[in-house]
Specification:
Elements: E1 4-12, E2 17-24, E3 30-37, E4 41-48, E5 53-58, H1 62-66, E6 76-79, H2 85-97, E7 105-111, E8 120-127, E9 148-153, H3 154-162, H4 169-181
Parallel strand pairs: 4-8
Antiparallel strand pairs: 1-2, 2-3, 4-5, 4-6, 5-9, 7-8
Helix pairs in contact: 3-4
């Protein structure tokens, strides 16, 4: 017997939709599971190979705030909003960090939280130069993002990764990927 969703019942509608799904498991058992319909998105670790820094952002995240944790240091990311992942991340990079990205290196498409959410994130690496910083960034005013933009030395990101201090999964994934692909950027000069 194959696994299948037999039915879905909407519990909440909003930016995120919460549903109760009735599933048939491989053994034939029927169970109910919550399902969060979440928009898919894209993320990028924008890095300057000459100055050996990366552009990161932080903002108020209600779940993080609720848990009493400090704001996370995050890569640039956003919801697709009908765009393909490349167009989305170029738009988000300009809005969030004021940087114009050119060549995107596609890394992976990953499930954000596969136990509950439909969200998938397409991740990229992208080199930039100082001349690509064309605006202040900070996010869109109409979305009240109030992002703080920081250039962080790559050696500091490596130290934070090694110390378990990068708590945002997409950021950790992309920092570690850049370390594997371009280790010379993390070496002391």
């Amino acid at each position: 017997m194959t696994e299948a969703i037999l039915s879905e019942r909407r519990i909440h509608s909003g930016w995120l939709n919460l549903k109760l799904a009735t599933l048939r498991l491989a053994g034939g058992e029927t169970v109910e599971r919550e399902l969060i319909e979440h928009p898919s998105g894209a993320a990028v670790l924008a890095y300057d190979p000459d100055r050996r820094v990366a552009l990161l952002v932080s903002q108020c995240r209600p779940p993080v705030l609720r848990q009493g944790a400090p704001p996370l240091l995050e890569v640039i990311a956003g919801a697709l909003d009908g765009d393909d992942p490349e167009a989305c991340i170029r738009r988000e990079a300009l809005e969030e960090a004021g940087v114009r990205l050119h060549d995107l290196e596609r890394i992976a498409e990953t499930w954000a939280s596969p136990a509950t959410s439909t969200e998938r994130v397409t991740s990229f690496l992208a080199a930039y130069r100082q001349s690509d910083r064309v605006a202040q960034g900070g996010g869109r005013d109409d979305e009240a993002e109030h992002l703080r933009v920081r250039e962080v030395p790559l050696t500091e990101l490596a130290r934070r990764a090694d110390a378990g201090e990068l708590q945002d999964a997409k950021t950790l994934l992309l920092v570690q990927t850049l370390r594997l692909r371009k280790p010379e950027l993390f070496a002391d000069r």
